[in-house]
Structure formats: structure tokens, C-alpha cells
Design a protein that fits this description.
Number of helices: 0
Shape: flat
Largest sheet: 4 strands, antiparallel
Distance between the termini: 36 Å
Mean pLDDT: 80
Helix content: under 10%
Structural class: mainly beta
Low-confidence stretches: none
Length: about 70
């Protein structure tokens, strides 16, 4: 269910959502200004792949992976 937006001009601090990925029923992602956190419910035995820019990660079902996000300035 969607939550109401804050007051006009209020900055977004993070975003959280759930996805299905290749048979993994619940993969939850949280994106904040400085990190990406991924977790799963652990219903399968296979590792989940994750790619952030040029870096590749894998994390175990039932585990949590936090990846720092480095901002690129132009």
C-alpha cells in the first residue's frame, strides 16, 4: 500500500520495495542516499547475483547485503 507523500519540498531520504527474482519470492531492496541494502527471505538454496555499476556481488538467501553508493560528480 502506498504511503502518503510528505509535505511539498520535503526531501526523499530512502525508498524500499520488494521484487520477485528468478524464483526468489521476496527480495527486498532499500535505496538510501549512501547505500543499497538487499535482503531475501531465504526460501531457496542458491546465491543471488547483484551488480552495482562495475562491481559484482553475491549474497546468500536469508542474508543481507549492504553496498555503499559513491556519488559521481560531473
Amino acid at each position: 500500500m502506498a504511503r502518503p507523500l510528505g509535505s511539498p519540498g520535503e526531501a526523499l531520504t530512502a525508498m524500499r520495495f520488494r521484487v520477485r527474482y528468478r524464483g526468489h519470492r521476496e527480495v527486498e531492496a532499500t535505496i538510501a542516499h549512501d547505500s543499497l541494502t538487499i535482503g531475501s527471505s531465504g526460501q531457496t538454496a542458491t546465491q543471488l547475483p547483484l551488480r552495482v555499476r562495475d562491481a559484482e556481488y553475491r549474497f546468500d538467501p536469508g542474508g543481507v547485503l549492504e553496498v555503499p553508493l559513491h556519488h559521481i560528480r560531473s
